[in-house]
Design a protein that fits this description.
This protein is an alpha+beta fold. The protein folds into two domains: 31 residues, no CATH class; 39 residues, no CATH class. Helices cover 26% and strands 29% of the residues. It has two helices and three strands; from the N terminus they run ααβββ. It has a three-stranded antiparallel β-sheet, with no helix packed on it. A hairpin with a 7-residue loop joins β2 and β3. The N and C termini lie far apart (35 Å).
Length: 78
């Protein structure tokens, strides 16, 4: 299953997959997204922190087995 998920996250497959979707009549998604890190296979919690117009997302996971630890932190504001 992990191999299948990693292949699904591959940038090399995004173009052909989008082409097949268009040929099948699937509309373009209204929301775009980008992967900033590899897939995370543990249990995770995401926290969105915002102050005024600034926002940050933090994803914490249980990979070490000792509670939550940061797996990804990303600033959402330009």
């Amino acid at each position: 299953m992990r191999t299948l998920l990693r292949v699904g996250w591959s940038r090399a497959l995004s173009g052909p997959a989008a082409l097949v979707a268009r040929l099948l009549g699937v509309p373009r998604p209204r929301v775009r997204w980008k992967a900033y890190d590899r897939p995370y296979f543990g249990s995770a919690v995401a926290t969105l922190t915002h102050h005024g117009r600034a926002a940050t997302v933090t994803i914490e996971g249980t990979a070490d087995g000792k509670g939550l630890s940061p797996a990804l932190r990303y600033d959402l504001t330009p």
